[in-house]
Fold:
Amino acid sequence: MSFDSFDAEVLHAAMGLVTESGELMDAMKKHLIYREPLDLINLAEEIGDQLWYMAIICRKLNLSMGDIMDTNINKLKIRFPHKFTEYDALNRDLGGEREILEK
Structure:
């Protein structure tokens, strides 16, 4: 199997997101489990790295991060019309959410 440059860049960015997510979780583990002070500088770095990889994917797929964020907010308004509830999280209107995502 061979990858072209496009595939390789998108795959690299997707793998980077997974790696950076693990690093973010490791920082949280150190704080919550090992009771180390929360390192906000490190958390900000890991979040920044995730944003970098997301920007690469968006650029390669010709997607707008702003449009994606707006669509996600609208989807969550359908899912949680008033505020987060466990009931709404478990009883989602998948058709309504999909309709928002397809606009």
